[in-house]
Fold this sequence. Notes:
heterodimer, A: mainly beta, 6-stranded mixed β-sheet, 5-stranded antiparallel β-sheet, 11 strands, globular, B: mainly beta, 4-stranded antiparallel β-sheet, 0% helix, 57% strand
Amino acid sequence: TQLLEQSPQFLSIQEGENLTVYCNSSSVFSSLQWYRQEPGEGPVLLVTVVTGGEVKKLKRLTFQFGDARKDSSLHITAAQPGDTGLYLCAFPKEGGSEKLVFGKGTKLTVNP
Amino acid sequence: DTAVSQTPKYLVTQMGNDKSIKCEQNLGHDTMYWYKQDSKKFLKIMFSYNNKELIINETVPNRFSPKSPDKAHLNLHINSLELGDSAVYFCASSLRNTEAFFGQGTRLTVV
C-alpha cells in the first residue's frame, strides 16, 4: 500500500504556464515535507508544512497543507525551465521509527 | 563544504562481486539513512541508524549490511551483487524526523 499518492506522475508544460501537483493520503500527518530532485542529484528540501490549512510561499512556489492534514499541494506560477525536476512529498513516520516515507513523485519538465 | 558526501558516485561491477559504498556527514546529525531509488525514481528507505544504532531495517536482502562506525558515518556493504541491485543509492542524514539532507547518490550498475 502506497501511503502517499502523488499526481500527476508526469507533467510537461511550456515556460510561463502555471501548474499544481498533489500529494494525497488517507492518513493524517503531523507534518509533510516537499523535496525537489534534479537529475544526478539528491533530493533537496523545499518546505515543511505542519499546521492544517497552512500556506507557505517560496518565490513562485506555493505550498498548502490540507485542513485535515491528509493532503498537500504545490502550485508553481509562471514555470521556468529551472523548475524542471522530480517533486517528492514525504512524511516522517511516527511511532518510534526514524524514517521519512516518500511518495513516488511528480516528474516535471518545463520546456523553453 | 559538502554536508553529506558519499563515494563512489558511479560503480559498475559484475554479478557476484562484493562492493561497499561510503557515506559521511558533517552536519552533526544523529540519524543517518540509506535509500534506494529504482529506475522509476521511487525512493524507498532501506536502513536508518540513530546514534550508531540500527533503528530501521526494511525488507532488504541480508546481502546488504550497513555499518555505522560513528555518528558521522554510515557505510553500505553489498555481497554477491545481483542484476536487480542496479539502482541509485542515496545516503541521507537528519536530526531525528526533521529535514533530511541527501548525498549526491551512488549509481550502481551490475552487469
